[in-house]
Amino acid sequence: MADTESDYLSIGEVLGILVDEFPEVTISKIRFLESQGLISPERTTSGYRKFHELDVELLRVILSEQRENYLPLRVIKDRIDSGEIDPSKEISRPFGIDRPVAVVQVEDTQLHPSARSYRPTSYEQTPTPTSRTLVGIGSGVNLDRGEFRSMTGLTEQEITELESYGIISPRRQPTTSYTEHEVAIGASARILLRYGIDARHLRNWRTTAERELSLIEQLLAHQIRQRDPASRSKARHQAHEISEAGAKLRTALLQAGLDQLFD
Questions:
Q1: What is the CA radius of gyration of the chain?
Q2: pLDDT attached to residue 60
Q3: Is it true that 11-116 and 122-201 share their CATH fold?
Q4: Is the peptide bond before 41 cis (omega within 30 degrees of 0)?
Q5: Angle of helix 180-194 relative to helix 199-219, nearest 10 degrees?
Q6: What is the Cα 56 distance to its own chain's centre?
Q7: Fold of 122-201
Q8: pTM recorded for the entire structure
C-alpha cells in the first residue's frame, strides 16, 4: 500500500521537531549523519527521504550523545551497531506525525528557513562554537571542502580568504581536509564576518592565540621534551588548564570593558 501523508515525515518536518531541542541542527547536518551511516531513512519512489518515528528518535539520541557526552560519531555508530544504543527504548514523548508541524513542506534540495546556515540574529541567540559542541562533529573527523562549507556556512570566497590569512589551515596531504578544529574556527569566523569584520582583521585573533600558545610552550618546555608518557600526559593536562584559565581571563577582561563601554 502506498504511503499516505501521515505515514512518514519529510526531512523538513523532522527538522521542525528537533530544532527547538537542538538549535544547531540543520538539514545539512541530518544529511551528514546519513552519509556517515548513523541513520538510514527510507526513500519515496521520487527519491525523497522518508522518516518514521524510530528515525527521529535515533536522531534525537545521536544528537544528545554528542551534546551531553561529547562522543565522536564513530563511537556512536559502534554503539548503535552493537545494540548498546536502542532508540526504540528511548521513545518517551509524542512523535507528532498525526499533528501539524510548524514547518513548510520542503524538498530535499531546499532548506527550511530554520535549517539555513546558522546565522544568529541577536547576541542572546549566539552560542560559542567549539570543536566539542558543534552537532555532527566528533574528534578525528576529516571533511572535504564541500562538507566543511556545509558545516560552517562559509562561502567559497570566505574560505579562500580565511585560508590566505592563515585563519583556517586545512591539511593538504594526501588531499585537502578539514578537522573539527577548522570547523570550530570557521563557524566562529563566519559570525565575525557577518558583523563586518573582514578576514585580514581576524588575523588579530590568530596572532593572539599564537602568542598564548608560545607562552604555554615556554612554561612547559621541560615537561614537553620528556619522553615518558606520564610526564607528557601531565604536561598536556597543565597546558589545557592554562589555556582554559587564559580564555576565562580574556573573557572577563572583555566583559569588564564592554560594561564600561555601555555604562
A1: 21
A2: 92
A3: yes
A4: no
A5: 140
A6: 19
A7: Multidrug-efflux Transporter Regulator; Chain: A; Domain 2 (1.10.1660)
A8: 0.50
Strand (E) positions, the chain?
42-43, 49-50
How is residue 33 written as a grid cell? Answer: 549523519
Amino acid identity for residue 37 in this structure:
G
The pLDDT assigned to 246 comes to 93
Question: For position 108, what pLDDT does the model report?
Answer: 40
Does 11-116 carry CATH code 1.10.10.10? Answer: no
- Residue-range domain boundaries for the chain: 11-116, 122-201, 220-263
Q: How distant, in Å, are the alpha carbons of 117, 133, 135, 199 from that of 9?
A: 22, 27, 21, 40
Rounded average pLDDT per 10-residue block, the chain, 263 residues: 61 86 84 90 86 92 84 84 78 38 37 37 38 47 82 90 92 82 91 91 91 91 86 91 93 92 84
Q: Which residues contact 188 (CB under 8 A, 6 or more apart)?
A: 128, 129
